[in-house]
Amino acid sequence: MQPPTPPPSTPAVDLGTSGPFPEAGDRPLCGPTGEPDFAAIQASPEFARLRRRLRLFVFPMSALFLCWYLTFALFSAYGSEFMRRKVAGEVNVGTLFGLAQFLTTITIVVTYTRFAKKRLDPQSDRIHQLVRADAEAGRK
Questions:
Q1: Could you give the CA distance from residue 99 to residue 72 in angstroms, rounded to a whole number?
Q2: CA angle 18, 22, 28 (to 5 degrees)
Q3: pLDDT for 6-56, tens place per residue?
Q4: In sequence order, what are the beta bridge partners of 30?
Q5: Which residues face 91 on adjacent strands?
Q6: Rounded Cα distance, 129 and 140, in Å
Q7: Helix, strand, coil % (nearest 5) of the chain?
Q8: Helix count (H) and strand count (E) of the chain?
Q9: Closest of 132, 139, 140 to residue 29, by C-alpha
Q10: The pTM is what?
Q11: R_g of the chain, CA atoms, integer Å
């Protein structure tokens, strides 16, 4: 079944969900008033690259941390003998696993911050530049 066609007075808007992203320059990133067209920005290949880079970091890192956390939880629930083993004085394996959770979280935050500065921020800045250039071109 074909989707209904919009009335002639309403411009058709492709949000990039039905096919490949439009090439840069196919669709202005700003409206006639100079305001950003967020649907066009989202459909741009630059934004697609930014989202892909973010996903390539976030999903694997989240999966690894979830596995690490579930290991800790399962050992706590079913490996109590192992978790009670003394390592030094009153410090046991369970305490070390718990502290390692904090260290893992801090490591992930620091790693993400470096990743964002190196890989995401330049791409985001590029998108901002394209939108600004499009807005300035529309005002002339």
A1: 11
A2: 120
A3: 545 444 444 444 344 344 456 788 887 788 889 999 999 999 999 999 999
A4: 36
A5: 88
A6: 17
A7: 65, 5, 30
A8: 5, 2
A9: 132
A10: 0.71
A11: 25
